[in-house]
Design a protein that fits this description.
The protein is of the alpha/beta class and 210 residues long. The chain contains eight helices and seven strands, in the order H-E-E-H-H-E-E-E-H-E-H-H-E-H-H. The strands form two sheets. It has a five-stranded mixed sheet, sandwiched between helices. Strands 4-5 form a two-stranded antiparallel sheet. Strand 4 and strand 5 (103-106) form a beta hairpin. Helix 3 (67-79) crosses helix 8 (183-209). It is globular and about 50 Å long.
Length: 210
């Protein structure tokens, strides 16, 4: 069965969060502690989409609670987007990993796994109806936009997508953590891309108020 078979009839966040725990739409559920759905304000204007839960996210059941989450918080704060007014999630809801000694190391999900999980992302979008979606990294960008995206070339631009009026791709915070000699530069670029989103949100609010 595909993930779509596990979706609840009513696409509320509470119903999605309960239903996703039973999803066996791909094999990733076999080695994960739990499925990790997104979290955030129900009326969020901004949805941030990463690749998949990491080790801590898998254990705690919450998205972006590790070091990458702290980088994201810093960039959102600098861009003037309150974290508590966003919804954060991942393209894939189960942690894919490989063993390295006693450690569980991130293993990039393949496209069939991302595609299998896409109904859950669509369900979250339908429940939240965000004004803007920010795809963090190449896997999330492809999941959101439906094509391969060159992050360094297309980051910060408005991309065509049916999921939201504003769609932007940028670096995943974990990529910034790995870029030892470019961390400050990439963090600045991530912040700039989020400022693009903030500017469009302000413009949309003015338009609604006019």
């Amino acid at each position: 069965m595909t993930a779509a078979a596990y979706l609840p009839d009513r696409l509320s966040l509470a119903a999605l969060r309960e239903a996703v725990q039973g999803c066996q739409g791909c094999d990733l559920y076999r080695n994960a502690t739990q499925a990790v759905l997104g979290e955030g304000a129900r009326a969020s204007e901004v949805m941030l989409v990463g690749e998949q839960p990491g080790d801590q996210e898998d254990k705690q059941g919450h998205p972006f609670v590790g070091p990458a989450g702290r980088v994201l918080d810093e960039a959102l704060d600098a861009a003037g987007i309150p974290r508590d007014q966003t919804y954060v999630t991942n393209a894939v809801k189960h942690f894919k990993w490989k063993a390295r000694g006693k450690r569980r190391i991130h293993d990039k999900p393949n496209w069939s796994e991302v595609s299998a999980c896409h109904p859950w992302l669509e369900g979250e979008v339908a429940a939240i109806r965000p004004e803007a979606i920010v795809a963090l990294g190449a896997t999330a960008a492809r999941a959101v936009v439906g094509r391969t995206v060159a992050i360094t070339r297309e980051r910060g631009q408005l991309l065509e997508c049916d999921l939201a009026p504003v769609v932007v791709v940028t670096f995943h915070p974990s990529a910034i953590l790995r870029a030892q000699d470019r961390q400050a530069e990439m963090l600045g670029e991530l912040t700039d891309d989020l400022r693009v989103v903030a500017t469009h949100l302000k413009s949309a609010r003015r338009g609604r108020a006019a």
